Amino acid sequence: MSQSDSPVKNSAAPFWHTKTLAEMTREEWDSLCDGCGRCCLNKVIDDDDRIHTTAVACKLLDLNSCQCKDFTNRWHYVPDCIRFTPDNLQENLKWLPDSCAYRLLLDGYDLPEWHPLVTGDRNSVHEAGFSVRGMAVSEEEWPDPDEWHQLIIVTE
To answer: Model's pTM, two decimal places?
Structure first.
């Protein structure tokens, strides 16, 4: 999306300050995604039902752009891919990183200073080090889910 196409142009306050997630248009909702790719990292659920994020990305994630290679048809290849919506967000928060705009806004926080809607630059998420660029491998390179625990990202 170019800056001229941005849903925030010509407004006194950005839409994420004036609307709830449920009130946003589809374009506004979709623009909240910062393009980090973190939700596309595979997760491991341990014996205590804790979710751990791995550095193994979905096979459809372009590891450079951090965008889905076939967003429109992704369910054909990845049937359990989640399309986050205002209606299912609460039940799916566990799959999103703490830095995710959907989670932040739901919890009453503002977008981070590096978010592309704030900076006007789609690369700001990468430049700030919040994307998976340079730190993930494709599940095509690491195909055995039983070995993904070896690549758990430590966040504590």
So the answer is: 0.84
